[in-house]
Specification:
22% helix, transferase activity, ApbE, 459 residues, alpha+beta, single chain, EC 2.7.1.180, T-fold, magnesium
């Protein structure tokens, strides 16, 4: 997947079901048998707390305390007994579950690369390359590492496929809204008057000239790669596992970056879908054995302005304001079986061996080589862009929980909502009407892993 020679160490229809999810019908994760569930990985956020004015979440821990709401991950712990924790990664932490122990050299290499990654892409570091772009009065030429090519390429595709609603130049809007490098969460008084492309903020396609991994600007530009950056790190680390694990057989692993998961196991992992209204509850489950699974929600990273309006980090880049009609999204991307350990220096030069007929070759290549990056970006894009529009460009499955507690899912989503409705594969009509469906089914009620809803990371 990744070539680390230059790194520190080496028109589609969407079948849906729309349903209200009453609070009385949600499943409490704590009622699931204690031997079959793992409650995510951030202790603080999974104890019912939000990230409201909490820029420093507790680091992940492979050994949850007895008093926390986490439960022993017996099933997964037996299958993947070795856990490497990187508690400072991107400000949210990262856990690597493997079936064989990683040698110290590889663990150190991963740790060093995480630092290298942040030194290039973090907008919270003044001395990062992104930080220098933000403070360059007259712009300049900024060279990023070769491994950043895949990230920039996907942002090109997301910008085009969302008509500009996903744009890394949204960093300026986040800063104006208070999500700045000091985590002030204090919006500028005139934030709304200057937010978004409609008010003249820089845009990725016009104000950032890209030549491979070199970005050229002519004025200060505040980039934020948070929509895809955490997922991209996971993909690059998976490449390191394939390249440097040093074992005769491919290792099994789960990389857990707090809402962004990459699963590579012989048997499926059951993942609970966290309820954005209550982290102690799940609204459904999925089963994944090979591929990426990412979640996004404003539930863990939100704050208020002086007038009491709720703000969060999931913005529409056109107007620069938080999206308020979506509560949570979940995206699954399944690459070809060989793609997890396939090396490529461009993250886009080797064509996928399995093509989705509804998408072009380049998007299938992205899914093959950077599946978590794609899932991460799409989980954000679903806040601003209809799923049918995105599925015309990318191969993925998704589930969406709207702010009004209605939900939708694509036909091959690898799971479903609890107490959902039986439905047939019926296309969304051009008017957006949905068929009437009224037959209830009972959900499975166990999970080995929770997909915590993502919060803002340090990129």
């Amino acid at each position: 997947m990744a070539d680390f020679a230059g790194a520190t160490c080496a028109p589609v229809t969407l079948a849906v079901v729309v349903l209200p999810i009453p609070h009385s019908l949600r499943i409490n994760i704590d009622t699931v048998p204690k031997t079959s569930i793992h409650r995510g990985f951030t202790l603080n956020s999974l104890q019912g707390k939000t990230a409201h004015h909490n820029p420093h979440p507790e680091p992940p821990s492979p050994q949850p305390s007895a008093g926390s709401t986490m439960r022993a991950m017996t099933g997964l712990a037996e299958r993947l007994p070795h856990v490497a924790a990187f508690p400072e990664a991107l400000g949210t932490g990262l856990l690597l579950h493997t079936d064989v122990a990683l040698d110290d050299g590889l663990s150190n290499c991963i740790d060093m690369f995480i630092s290298t990654y942040e030194a290039a892409l973090s907008r919270f570091k003044d001395d990062s390359t992104v930080g220098r772009m933000r403070t360059a009065t007259h712009g300049g030429t900024f060279d990023f590492p070769d491994w950043a090519l895949g990230l920039f390429g996907l942002y090109d595709q997301l910008f085009a496929s969302t008509n500009g609603t996903i744009d890394p130049c949204v960093g300026e809007d986040l800063i104006r809204l208070g999500y700045d490098e000091s985590y002030s969460f204090t919006p500028a008084p005139d934030a709304a008057e200057h937010a978004g492309a409609i008010h003249g903020r820089a845009v990725w396609s016009a104000d950032v000239e890209r030549h491979g991994t070199t970005l050229i600007t002519h004025s200060p530009v505040a980039l934020d790669f948070g929509a895809c950056g955490k997922g991209y790190l996971v993909d690059l680390l998976a490449g390191m596992l394939g390249d440097g694990a040093g074992h005769p057989q491919p290792i099994q692993y789960v990389i857990d970056a707090g809402g962004d998961l990459l699963v590579h196991t012989d048997e499926p992992i059951t993942i609970a879908l966290e309820d954005p209204a209550d982290p102690a509850n799940a609204v459904g489950t999925v089963e994944i054995s090979h591929g990426a699974f990412c979640a996004s929600s404003p539930s863990r990273r939100h704050w208020s302005d002086a007038a009491g309006h709720q703000l969060h980090h999931l913005l529409n880049a056109i107007d620069g304001l938080p999206v308020d009609d979506v509560a949570a999204t979940w995206v699954a991307v399944t690459p070809p079986s060989s793609a997890i350990t396939t090396k490529t220096s461009t993250h886009g030069s080797n064509a996928s061996t399995t093509a989705n007929r509804d998408t072009d070759d380049s998007s299938n290549t992205v899914a093959a080589h950077v599946p978590v990056t794609l899932a991460d970006g799409l989980a954000t894009a679903l806040f601003t862009t209809p799923a049918t529009q995105l599925r015309a460009h990318f191969p993925f499955e998704c589930a969406i929980l709207n702010a009004n507690r209605t939900a939708a899912q694509s036909p091959n989503f690898p799971g479903g909502f609890f107490y959902t409705l039986m439905y047939e594969i019926i296309s969304i009509t051009s008017s957006g009407a949905f068929p009437r469906v009224d037959r209830w089914v009972a959900p499975p009620q166990s999970a080995t892993l929770t997909a915590p809803l993502g919060e803002g990371s340090r990129v």
